[in-house]
Design brief:
single chain; alpha+beta; seven-stranded mixed β-sheet; 7 strands
């Protein structure tokens, strides 16, 4: 097995990222979100620190980090190929994005909107729930808003 490689998103990764989205629909994403994701990849991925993880030359995970005016950064469009879930790639991607947020001047917390299906994953990383909206991402897909306060020693405690 090749070691997973984290790298910056390139425009040529768009189709691979859409395939990840499609493979995670409807369990983790509502079909109606696909148009938004296409627009994100086209217009915002390069400015939102979007990253991919490759295994054996194939893109198997992706996710970005957006900067907000209120001193927070947001996880956006994080996903892992279904057949690669449970192998630590999501954690690798989350830690990379948390280190990015930590390195950003003036960022004190990271926020995200997820669903009931991945809430426990983010809770294990230290995020806590601030709001829940039933069916907020689509029928049967609840919107769980979570946040994590960044501390000075976060990177020291989470080297990968």
């Amino acid at each position: 097995r090749m070691t997973p490689e984290l790298r910056a998103y390139l425009p040529g990764d768009a189709n691979a990222c859409l395939a990840l989205f499609d493979g995670n629909t409807p369990m983790f994403f509502a079909p109606a979100e696909r148009t938004d994701f296409i627009g994100f990849l086209r217009d915002h991925a390069l400015t939102h620190a979007f990253q991919v993880i490759e295994v054996d030359g194939l893109v198997v995970a992706c996710g970005g980090l957006s900067r907000h005016a209120d001193g927070s950064a947001g996880f956006c469009w994080g996903m892992v190929a279904r057949e690669h879930q449970g192998r630590g790639l999501g954690r690798m991607l989350a830690h990379a994005r948390l280190r990015q947020a930590q390195a950003e001047e003036g960022v004190h917390r990271v926020v995200l909107s997820t669903s009931q299906h991945t809430q426990a994953f983010y809770a294990a990383l230290g995020f806590h729930v601030v709001r829940e909206t039933a069916d907020g991402h689509g029928p049967g897909l609840h919107a769980i808003e979570m946040e994590l306060q960044l501390t000075r020693d976060f990177c020291a405690r989470n080297p990968h």
